[in-house]
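Issue: copy button drops trailing tokens. Both records pasted manually instead:
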Amino acid sequence: MNTRELMNIALRLAGLENEPYDTTISVEGENIQKILIGVDMETPEMLLAKNLGYDLVVSHHPKADETVIDFHKVMDIQIDKMVEFGVPINKAQKVLAKKSKSVEINSHVSNYSRVSSAAKLLNIPYMNIHMPSDLIGERFTQKYLNDKLGDNPKAKIKDILDALNELDLYDKSLSKPVVRCGNATDYAGKIAVLFAGGTNGGTDVYKSYFEVGVGTIVAMHAPEDVIKEVRQQNIGNIVVAGHMPSDSIGLNEII
């Protein structure tokens, strides 16, 4: 197997035709037999891989070059997700714009070639698979919760937590699913699982979901400013499923 074949497997599983902006092959490789793969793979992990005889290092999170500089562009897929739940497309674009611009500003000043330069100097193939993995995890978790709770209009947030903890990845994680907005005894209402799209879309995006009838957002992670605003406005519930176990769902499917 080579790096292109591995990338094509990930794209196919995610239902994508082309590499999204946050996913790329930095250093191509052939005759791949041993792969060191993880959520955050940088220079230390490359040195480890080199010493242990691995043929390829695969990071989930984008660490190099265009995947860093253009990271904000992948956030546009959140518009499609909002539309799927009933947010008008023009509104979806506008509520995402503030966070997308913030991400672009922060990415622009990054040391974007550090990791790819290390891979080239070490002569070790290196790639990352971000959005394909997140899409796989998001679709799996949405379907899983729909199947578990969709027939129960009075499902509560506790039921979401219990359902997630039935999965080994969450049950065995140190960062287990937690309620960040709302209470475990609150009704869940309609559930939206938001794992893909680069990073959290911000308060305006969350508010747009609640305004079209979503009762509970299940996210990998939620920043403090979003949690604070949603709490103050008392407009919906947020369950943080846990970053590492949620990332692992899609990665494990690709593996």
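Record 2 (pasted manually too):
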Amino acid sequence: MIRALFTALGKQNSGPLRRLLVLLATAAVLQGIAYAFLVPVLRALFGDRPDAVWSPLLVFALACAGSAVATWFAQAAAFRTGSRLANVLHHRLGEAIVALPLGWFSRSRVGELTRMNGEHVLQVMSVPAHLLRPAVTSVLTPLTILAAVLLVDLRLGLVLAVSVPVLLVVLGISNRVVQAADAGRHRVMDEAANRIIEFAKAQPVLRAFGQAGSGGRALDQALRAQREVDRSMLFRVIPGLVVFEFGVRVMVTAALVMGVLAVLDGRLDAATVIAVLVLVGRFAEPVNAAAGLGASIRMARSSLAGINRVLAERPLPEPKSPVLPTRTDVEFDTVSFGYDDRPVLREVSFTLPANSMTALVGPSGSGKTTITRLLGRFWDTTSGTVRIGGVDVADIATDELMSIVSFVFQDVYLFDGTLTDNVRIGRADAGDDEVRDALERAGLLGELAPDSQVGEAGSMLSGGQRQRVSIARALLKQAPIVVFDEATASLDPENDVTVQHAIRALAENSTLLVIAHRMQTVQSADQILLLDNGSLTERGTHDELLAQDGTYAHFYRQRTTAAGWRLIHQ
């Protein structure tokens, strides 16, 4: 646990934690020494020479004072270290998240990262702020007392020495039983967090279709699963705590019996036994407290492990000698890629000529979106090479690559602010006239004013409007390569014409790769790439592929037939 804390803090920020541990250890040992000197104090008071009490009493007082001072400084340092730890973790998580490849981010990561930056960081912060002091005390104070009891009477000391490993075994077994369910519990908690976020974001849609009451079924199921896993965790924790408490009571009882026998045998006097039994009580108290800390420490350890996993994630390597391409043609050279053990692309090869428009078509799951992600180096290929202007994308610095390639994502995220602010993300130094021009070309000015508020995540805009904001960003950015990921799927027919004009304008000055459902977009492409099951099966213009009478021709006939359907009222 301590090692994991140092890992999370990093070398530059670990100084306060080291000082805190020294202060806590000093306070705990001095507390144990103070308890140990109760033996000579009580022995003198109840013995033949009460005047001999002053020397051990002075040591007792000094140890108590030293422990109190060290505890005071340690408590102040604990809160400072906890606050510093939370600050460092937030910054390190932010830096790590920014450096991670875009392919790392998925829908399931939203709830995980939300809990990690909130609940998990607070749990880890509580370790130095609240948990370290009782944890260190529960280890070092009993060890100091144990050493003192061994010096007074070997048999009594052995009773305590033998009891400690037994109690630790009980506590260890209990923790392992609980830890076995911890991973499942965290998955359930992350799922519940995801469903809460989803339910909140979906309120406009649910209410629009009268599903506000029934639309929370997934959330209800997630919360029920969370309640069940919490109940299961409780039943796993309680037996271990009960057995541990019983073991502590057995230890104290055994020490009491051994003390009485020592007095009856004449091995120890009554005053010494009374003092030793006081030590046994002080020995048992922090040991018992350690068991009570188990749940909090286990939760903090689990949270810290999750944070360290994210911090340990390796970003895609940056090139040591980055190269900036001078051309805008794109080449996929025998590219293969898969998620874990599931292959998605199999030796795909094609070229996108500079300032041309290419349409990617194919059934769902054929690898279209994966191709666009590999072009932006969301991941590195399993094998093969993706090149821009003859340069491997892995040899292009990430910032440069992002300036070369512009994306119109299927899922558009808008920040809470004005329409102009959201479009200007495409190019921060763009002037107002340039922003207005991009808005007009994306077909937004006729519906919205530039200073219109879009709401959190674009909640005040329609799906088509949100997507057109993303198109306006791409128009403003003027990147030499533009990728549209199903960019026209949510547009109404009237504004589709406007977007088609914008796409053609982009194609004049950019290399354009489009995943489109609309045949008008596909037909206007300079080349069409047909993907099926991760392989490139057909390539050519619209007329060439129709002449081949293959899969694309069949797909085209289906779409044109469906487009001619009409509803007949009788």
